[in-house]
Design brief:
mainly alpha, 2 domains, 4 helices
Length: 134
């Protein structure tokens, strides 16, 4: 039994490598999320600091900026970049939510689903009524 399971698991891993990687990453995040996310955040912060320092030195050397001028220039450049990225992501999320809403509306307008929703609402109202008066 276990040999069949591992053979099936091995075949699944080789057929769907991306899916297996996503599942593995999900379980690692689930088990070690509290320490792993903090570590990823620290690594990203260090990477950002290295890039910022390199850009500051480049601005000082290439354009003759003072250290303060380079810092201010990079700060406002990063603010503009973050504003654009926020707008871009918010726009993508809005359109994805709009598509999901339209798909849900199309699904819930079918007669079969309407019948199930009516039945669920009736049983819910009946259960609430019984609960209130008991």
């Amino acid at each position: 039994m276990s040999a069949q399971f591992f053979a099936h698991l091995k075949a699944l891993c080789y057929q769907h490598k991306k899916t297996t990687c996503y599942i593995g990453a999900f379980f690692i995040l689930l088990l070690f999320g509290d320490t792993l996310l903090a570590l990823i955040g620290h690594c990203l912060h260090l990477l950002l600091e290295v890039i910022e320092s390199a850009l500051e030195h480049f601005l000082e050397a290439a354009f003759g900026f003072s250290a303060r001028q380079a810092q201010v220039t990079l700060f406002y450049s990063f603010c503009i970049l973050m504003g654009y990225l926020t707008w871009y992501v918010a726009r993508k999320v809005y359109f994805a939510a709009l598509r999901g809403y339209e798909m849900a509306q199309a699904f819930y307008r079918t007669p079969r689903v309407k019948a199930w929703i009516k039945a669920i609402l009736m049983f819910g109202a009946l259960g609430t009524t019984v609960y209130i008066f008991s």
